[in-house]
Amino acid sequence: MDEGAKMRTCHLLDLPWEDVLVPHILCYLPLQHLVSLQRVSKQFHSLIQVYLANCRTFDVSSTGPSIPKEAFCSMLKDNKVLHSLSLQSCSDWVSDEELLPVIGQNQHLQRVDMSGCVWLTRHSLVAVSLSCTHLQHLGLAHCEWVDSLSLRSLADHCGGLQSIDLTACRQLKDDAICYLAKKCLKLRSLSLAVNANVTDESVEEVAKNCRGLEQLDLTGCLRVRNQSIRTLAEYCPKLQSLKVNHCHNVTESSLDPLRKRNVVIDVEPPLQRALVLLQDVLGFAPFINLQI
Which distant-in-sequence residues (6+ apart) come within 8 Å of 11 by Cβ? Predict the structure, then answer.
């Protein structure tokens, strides 16, 4: 009877925290529920802090469009084992002041997404390059503070980089992109979209150095022409996806060889585009025997 009474009074928090609760129970709960649990008692608050200190992924996008600055700093103040860090829910306010301590104590980061973080500066990218030498995936879309010097620092220290999104990083020019391509030979996915400074020089350097490239986004790169697309087709046999929408100097003559290799391209062949226009005008698509 005494033993049965003891079993009835056993509580959740009596289970081993780091061996049972953290790896086998809390990891299945949404972050917003964990944050709420902190308010239950001092013990629960301590338990959640242990969980957050051992969390390898920080992505609070599921909690809503934004997270308060105080919550961000509190949740990551003791964590030194992060492998993945997404800042999209903090993009409206996160600055170097909040991010640099997190980067400095998490040297095993493999994936960092700073997309849209307009209040950061080049110092954050330099800190990432110096601290996170095992970095494989980096998101910098719409970070107009990214400049040539900070990108060169990244290339010098993160040679294992596999994917990088430089969409709308408008300060970057060919010299920085070429330097990145020569240093980061393992690149498989690259976005240079919405950058009027990117020319054939960048695309050709990427093609010749990053032979394992699988995805390339050149959307809106108005100065890219057929010449570099042909080089891409020649040097990148693993290419799977190419985006060239609004690249008005890229024509079907350079895209057709890639289509024959089943590369997914975001613009339709001329005949297909013509049929779509006719359908819009006439209300139906005319029958055309494509085998003639």
Answer: none
Give 146's DSSP letter.
Answer: -
Number of residues that make up the chain: 292
* Nearest residue to 179 (alpha-carbon basis) of 157, 212, 211, 194: 157
CA distance linking residue 111 with residue 49, whole number of Å: 22
Cβ-contact 72, 98 below 8 angstroms: yes
CA distance linking residue 247 with residue 255, whole number of Å: 12
pLDDT digits (tens, 9 = 90+) for 15-41: 888 888 888 888 888 777 787 888 888
> Distance between CA atoms of 227 and 254, rounded to whole angstroms?
8
**pTM score, whole prediction:** 0.85
Cα separation, 253 vs 259, in Å, equals 11
Name the DSSP class of 114.
-
At 8, which helix (H) or strand (E)?
Answer: helix 2-8
Buried b (16+ CB within 10 A) or exposed e, 242-266: bbbeebebbeeebbeebeeeebebe
